[in-house]
Specification:
The chain is an alpha/beta fold. The protein has three domains: about 180 residues, 2-Layer Sandwich (Nucleotidyltransferase, domain 5), CATH 3.30.420.10; about 90 residues, HRDC domain (DNA polymerase, domain 1); about 70 residues, DNA polymerase, domain 1. It has 18 helices and six strands.
Length: about 375
């Protein structure tokens, strides 16, 4: 049962922003969360930023306050710990929209993963630790809408109100399990985010099932993807709300030539009215355009691939022993460098994994053995 809490402080004026900033700068720890509109816009943006300190919960409206530079020295402050749950998404959004940089992060979801928790959602953890229930009705809300209804405001504040207490619970467990230093290493690494594209392949190549198409059908699919992107941008809607991937794949295979054929392919009357002509034109272009070629990604040499597979097999076995997911034992960021550099000594291993001395100390000998070398100490 949720306790009755004081109303959160709504921050939507420069004066209120500077007043909140002063309060946050005086804190050793600040809980933070963000809400975005990825389900409702072509280009998502941060639509709400929540902060909690022991004395107050703040809800900041970035749709009204366009200049958030006063917050920069909070996020980059090395003496103020910022507590997030599943920080990566929040940090990416804050850097993308405002150019913030980060220092001194505590990620409660990452802490829970390092401890081997199976249920990692904030709602589950709050229910387990504090008997607090989050209303699942609001998980897919439109955070870009204004005004936000009272229920949504209450839901947003609960995302940070208990985070500092949750952080303390998890830190105590990390200490007891002798994994706090490991967590701190991973928290530090999470501060460095990049907004560069993660995708090396074209969008059509990322649609499940495209590998079963003929080259000409793949070319039609590419034109349909480009068409959908233009439509989504014009309408300011997510791609899937224009046409989902499964439907796009079907159109590439069947290549309908008329509005009636689009109906037979399963498009709704509304979709046909709004997008039908553009889709038919994309299909026509795809039938005559130069055939697309899949993006070639250089494969590792057989020796490197062999070491990579050995490392993956070892970390899976070790993860099973310790009751965690395999990337907690050896995160992806280390796999390829280890396979490529093939360290033969403890010193060489430490150089490759310089930002994770805990793993070098606890797993170094096993990693070297897996790679066919012997630890020198």
């Amino acid at each position: 049962m949720n306790a009755v809490l004081p109303a959160p402080i709504w921050v939507d004026t420069p004066d209120a922003l500077w007043q909140m900033r002063a309060h946050l700068l005086a804190q050793p720890r600040v809980a933070v969360d963000t809400e975005a509109n990825s389900l409702y816009a072509f280009r998502e943006q941060v639509c709400l930023i929540q902060f909690s300190i022991p004395e107050a919960d703040y809800l900041l409206d970035p749709l009204t306050l366009h200049d958030l530079t006063p917050l920069a020295d909070i996020f980059s402050n090395e003496t103020i710990e910022k507590v997030f749950h599943a920080a990566e998404y929040d940090l990416l959004g804050l850097q993308r929209d405002y150019g913030f940089t980060f220092a001194n992060i505590f990620d409660t979801m990452l802490a829970a993963r390092i401890l081997g928790y199976k249920q990692l959602g904030l709602g589950h953890l709050l229910a387990e630790k504090f008997q607090v229930e989050l209303d699942k009705r609001y998980q897919k809300a439109d955070w870009g809408a204004r005004p936000l209804p009272p229920g949504l405001i209450d839901y947003a504040r609960l995302d940070t109100h208990y985070l500092l207490d949750l952080r303390d619970c998890l830190e105590a467990e990390l200490r007891a399990r002798e994994r706090l230093e490991l967590a701190r290493e991973d928290f530090q690494r999470s501060c460095y985010v990049t907004n560069g594209s993660r995708h090396l392949k074209e969008r059509w190549e990322r649609i499940e099932g495209q590998q079963d198409l003929t080259p000409r059908e793949q070319t039609i699919l590419n034109e349909l993807c480009l068409c959908r992107e233009k439509l989504a941008e014009r309408l300011n809607r997510p791609l899937f709300k224009v046409l989902d991937d499964r439907r796009l794949l079907n159109l590439a295979q069947t290549a309908p030539q008329s509005l009636e054929a689009l109906r037979a392919a399963g498009l709704s009357e509304r979709q046909i009215d709004r997008f039908g002509r553009a889709l038919l034109e994309a299909i026509e272009r795809g039938q005559s355009a130069p055939v697309v070629r899949p993006t070639e990604i250089e494969k590792p040499a057989p020796a490197i691939l062999g070491r990579l597979n050995k490392l993956k097999a070892w970390r899976k076995k070790k993860a099973d022993e310790l009751g965690v997911e395999s990337d907690i034992i050896l995160p992806r960021v280390y796999l390829m460098p280890l396979a490529e550099h093939n360290p033969r000594t403890a010193e060489a291993l430490a150089a490759v994994m310089s930002d994770s001395p805990w793993r070098v100390k606890h797993f170094g000998a096993e990693i070297l053995k897996t790679l066919g070398a012997k630890s020198s100490g």
